Amino acid sequence: MAAGPPPTASEAYRPNRFVSLPAELDPSTYDASPEKRRAEAERLAIRARLKRQYQLQLNNPNPPAIIEDPALLRWAYARTQNVYPTFRPTPKTSFLGALFAIGPILFWAAVFKADRDRKEKLIQEGKYKRPFSVF
């Protein structure tokens, strides 16, 4: 009697105490439940459909002025127009928001005040003549 097909690499692999198990051979990576396999197949089908639609537009003999990539449009929409459903206010985002909103105002206020104080000191010492102003 024949012994059957030889074992595959994943079946023949035996863990070594000196070397960790590669990710390709990790059972948690390739042994997926039927739900995970079905979800992965749906994602692959969507991706293939979008790719086919883009390829049809790209290779059209009478192409439109703008070739739209649906995946890129969805990504751009999620990044720009649909921010708030995925945004979570955290201390870091709150700090950065305050820094970018109030920071430039405080910076320029400090610069103008320092310049005004420097000129006022020079005027009081007599080293700078105040320019004529109607106001």
Explain this structure to me?
There is one protein chain. The protein has 135 residues and is mainly alpha-helical. The chain is built from 5 helices and no strands. It has helices at residues 9-12, 27-30, 34-58, 70-80, 91-125. It is elongated. The N and C termini lie far apart (110 Å). The mean pLDDT is 84.
What distinguishing features does this structure have?
single chain, 135 residues, mainly alpha, 5 helices, 0% strand, elongated
Question: Number of DSSP strands?
Answer: 0
Overall pLDDT level: 84
Major β-sheet profile:
none
Write the H/E string, N to C.
HHHHH
SSE class: mainly alpha
As a percent range, the share of helical residues equals 55-70%
**Assembly category:** single chain
Distance between the termini: 110 Å
Q: Low-confidence parts lasting 5 or more residues at pLDDT below 50?
A: none
Q: Number of helical segments? A: 5
Strand content: under 5%
CA-based gyration radius: 33 Å
Which shape, going by the Cα principal axes? elongated
Topology:
Elements lengths: L8 H4 L14 H4 L3 H25 L11 H11 L10 H35 L10
Kindly summarize this structure in a few lines.
The chain contains 5 helices and no strands. With 135 residues, the chain is an all-alpha fold.
